[in-house]
């Protein structure tokens, strides 16, 4: 009597974001944030909700379109969309709530674009559990893209990747070959501990096969 829902977002037939799966829930709360680069605001954002089935084809729950031209620039807007099945347009398949901000893209050079979301620890842990989990929050990092990075290879390009470090925790992104404007779209979490500082060290590297990778910037 339940589902394991997740959501796909598409622009122009291309998937631009996929949410995490929330298991055994008909009223899921995702609280995920994504930056989506839009070339043509007249192209609607296509939203499809699925039920995850391990080892089987995922079930289609419903879909909706978001008309981006209806949004006011630089204003956070809560939007409720009714989910529909094109084959059964009269069926009520529930709804999905989005909080959307449409903003013009700033022209920035030689940068890596991140979205960092801080979430406090809300669970009441037992004393025993608390001793093994001495963190006071979660830092959720979304690595989005790089712009006009430095060329490190003879072909005038780089093979960039990014390394993150917070205390003893580390994360390394995938390598995007032969580009100065990489698109990563990766998300990961760090735990924020009481006894450690909150500085995230971010370094960008160029992958070189057979020799030491080139440092691009910190």
Can you tell me the number of structural domains?
2
Q: What is the percent of helical residues?
A: under 10%
For the report, how would you describe the main beta sheet?
Answer: 4 strands, antiparallel
Per CATH, the class of the largest domain reads Mainly Beta
Order of helices and strands: EEEEEEEHEEEEEE
Structural class, from helix and strand content? mainly beta
CATH topology of the largest domain: the name is Immunoglobulin-like
Query: Could you say what the CATH architecture of the largest domain is?
Result: Sandwich
Rg over C-alpha atoms, rounded to the nearest angstrom: 20 Å
GO molecular function: calcium ion binding
GO cellular component, one term: synaptic vesicle membrane
Keywords: Calcium, Metal-binding
Family: Belongs to the MCTP family.
How is this fold's topology laid out?
Elements: E1 5-11, E2 14-18, E3 45-51, E4 59-66, E5 77-82, E6 95-100, E7 111-120, H1 127-132, E8 135-147, E9 160-166, E10 169-172, E11 183-193, E12 201-206, E13 214-217
Antiparallel strand pairs: 1-2, 1-3, 3-4, 5-6, 7-8, 8-11, 9-10, 9-12, 12-13
Structure overview:
The chain is an all-beta fold and 218 residues long. It folds into 2 domains: 5-125, C2 domain (Immunoglobulin-like, Sandwich); 135-217, Immunoglobulin-like (Sandwich), CATH 2.60.40.150. It is built from 1 helix and 13 strands, in the order E-E-E-E-E-E-E-H-E-E-E-E-E-E. The chain has one helix spanning 127-132; strands at residues 5-11, 14-18, 45-51, 59-66, 77-82, 95-100, 111-120, 135-147, 160-166, 169-172, 183-193, 201-206, 214-217. A 4-stranded antiparallel β-sheet has the order 2-1-3-4, with no helix packed on it. A 4-stranded antiparallel β-sheet has the order 10-9-12-13, with no helix packed on it. The longest helix is centred in the middle third of the chain and has 6 residues, at 127-132. It is globular and about 60 Å long. Residues 120-132 have low confidence and may be disordered. This is MCTP1 protein. Keywords: Calcium, Metal-binding.
């Amino acid at each position: 009597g339940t589902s394991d829902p997740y959501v796909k977002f598409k622009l122009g037939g291309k998937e631009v974001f996929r949410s995490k799966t929330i298991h055994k829930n008909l009223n899921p709360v995702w609280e995920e944030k994504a930056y989506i680069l839009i070339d043509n605001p007249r192209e609607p954002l296509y939203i499809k909700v699925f039920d995850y089935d391990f080892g089987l084809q995922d079930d289609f729950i419903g879909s909706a379109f978001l008309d981006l031209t209806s949004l006011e620039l630089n204003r956070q807007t809560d939007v409720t969309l009714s989910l529909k099945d094109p084959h059964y347009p009269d069926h009520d398949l529930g709804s999905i709530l989005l909080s959307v901000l449409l903003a013009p893209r700033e022209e920035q050079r030689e940068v890596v674009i991140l979205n960092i979301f801080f979430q406090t620890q809300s669970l009441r842990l037992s004393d025993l559990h608390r001793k093994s989990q001495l963190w006071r929050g979660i830092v959720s990092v979304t690595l989005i893209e790089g712009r006009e990075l430095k060329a490190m290879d003879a072909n005038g390009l780089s093979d960039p990747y990014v390394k993150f470090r917070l205390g003893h925790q580390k994360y390394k992104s995938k390598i995007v070959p032969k580009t100065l404007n990489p698109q990563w779209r990766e998300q990961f979490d760090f735990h924020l501990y009481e006894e450690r500082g909150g500085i995230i060290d971010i370094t960008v590297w160029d992958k070189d096969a057979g020799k030491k990778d080139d440092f691009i910037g910190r």
